[in-house]
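Attaching the record inline, Q. Sequence:
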Amino acid sequence: MSTPSAKQTYSDADIDALCEIGEFKDLDLAKFKKDLESFAAVYRWENGKYQNLPSYKETSTELSKIAKQAARLKESLQNCSHETEWAIEQGVQMDAVRIISKREGAPEHSSMVLSTEHLAENPGLLGVSVTTKSLAVILGRLEEITTKAPDTLPKRSAGKIPDYGLRLWLANIYERWPIWSQSRFSRDVDSTGQPITQAGRFCVHAFQIIEPAYSVSRIMNGMKNLIKEKRN
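Structure, as predicted:
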């Protein structure tokens, strides 16, 4: 797995401004900046995974298509002639020879023989052949799984999961806040919706450096939801 990007988000002037907003004193500024950069990188990395996800309907359609294809192929294998089954088994035997002579088996290579060399309990076993009968059983199970899978999917529309990245970023700030500040992590606002607490003002300023398009109200709502979640 790749690691989050090391892109710099906060300038030294940003760090000074955030320390002033939070009224932080005696902080290790290098560590403080490293934490903020890490949280920004994690936000971008994780939030990017949840952009333009398929909807429940789209995923269900894909699963249904796989289930139908698996069912048709399973039926074809179960009802094929002896000659057809023999022809397939000849190919499996050729794969078995290839894994013995060249160590070429699935999943690294296109093969009907699954490599088992990584299994410590069977160091002498090179692979297991997939016969037509076992393949039909596997396809039958694939059909069952893909038929039932839509019942476990979250019911949601297409697009980005709302504010997942913001929630993740706020959770990281929430955990660090007691180390940085003597004040509570709270999000009181004035009559215009502007934050009046140190934590609220800090979160708005710090997050808008990452995502300038995010409104104050959106960040404040994120804080509200997180604080409610942490209290429950």
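The chain has eight helices and two strands. Strands lie at 113-115, 127-129.

More tomorrow.
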